Amino acid sequence: MNSKETFPQPYFVAHQCLKRSVIYFFVLLIVVGYIFYDDDTAKGIINPKKQTNKTVSYDDPSITIEIDDDGNITTVIHSDNQTNVDNNVLLMSDEEINQRYCGNDKCKFLFVYNQPDEENLANQHMRNFIQLAEKLNRTMVLTNVGNSRISSCRKFPFNFYYSIDSLLKEYPHVSFITQENFKKWTKLRHEKPTTQHIYIARGGTNSTINIVNQKSSNIELIQRKNCLNQFNMKFNNDSIFKKIRTGKGFWILDETRSQFSKFLIDNLKEIDEEIILLNHEIRKPFFSNNLPKIEYSKRILQEADRIVNDLQPFISIYWRTVNALPTSSQLPECAQRLVETLKRVKTSLGIENVYLTTDYPMISSGKNQDYNKAMEILNSTIKFNTWITMKSFNNLLKNDNIRENTKEFNGRGINGILDKLIAINSDYFLTNPPDCGINYKDDFILDVTSSRSELMNEGNQRLLNLITHW
User: Fold this and answer.
1) Is the domain defined by 298-469 classed in CATH 2.60.40?
2) What is the spatial distance between Cα 112 and Cα 200, in angstroms, rounded to a whole number?
3) What pTM, to 2 d.p., does this model score?
């Protein structure tokens, strides 16, 4: 049975003041991520080169969420009091529609519709492609997010995870548009926008590009797999498909990385189509490693601060068992070692509270008895705090059916970000050795230790260690 809950919808901001006296504005972000509306997004997503600082406010509308029996969001019903511009769109030319959505007579967008990795690395990838959009003088589409991914198939808008205000400050020369507004643009256009598809693959000959002939069945598969059929654009047999090879180890040396990024910019700048659809399998940055970070939304940061303040002082444990060998008795032994180590650390530091991050709840309890036995050892010996016991986001998700049935709130996705922020700010960070699961190159650990190192270098004396393996 579907469950519904109504949440308040905040005001929005106009996109652009045109030469005429009528103010045209961006179509509203209508996806469910506004449940977590961040105050710093009230300024809207703008073309910073044409900012007018004029705002338009609306009465608070509402969003109703419908969830199917599998816990998937099936419908987002949006109602608001804005002027019904769609009725007037037939009177507008494509140039006027373009002006409304990109601030120019002709729009040029970069739409990286899928990031291949989970949030920790996807965040890094997104920064590289934002930099690419700036070099190409194209508007960057802010792809949807959800379940720890950045992908056009996800249900939540970009600001569900990330701060738009921070994005505009760190990338002041880049124009942005939300996926929802981008979709609106494709639907409103009379002459549907043209596309060129780019796929960046690892390896091969350094910095090479080839035109690929795609069969109709392959195009349909790309559309279905990446939910691209929701956009009304010319993506068919007439579209050009290109495959770019990075070459092996292009990121190792600054020289080869710079060569590849220049090659990429030079070739993509020649594209005249209105939309560059881009997919990739790059795992390393092709611009500088020091690109500005995309900060998390204010709602997530505030929730992390609340939990950290409630627990201080506390020990944070990260145990990802996914790479452990389930056919041995290794996991129960690892759990026992953790208990013994934790007792010593708690006694030595005089710290009582413990926060646990683990992938165990996402593993079926019937999959292997060793997983269950390991958790029984921990739960019978130590009192752990988790995002569940700390009732994360309960102040926003008051509907229990949404919290319990929506996959986003069952351990992956937004709570994974929350776990990372809590680990970064813990007094003592403890994780397992490689033989008990993850290795030292785990993205979560790399992100946490990098951030903790920055805090310690800044003089944060509350952090008692960088990382310790039990």
Assistant:
1) no
2) 11
3) 0.79
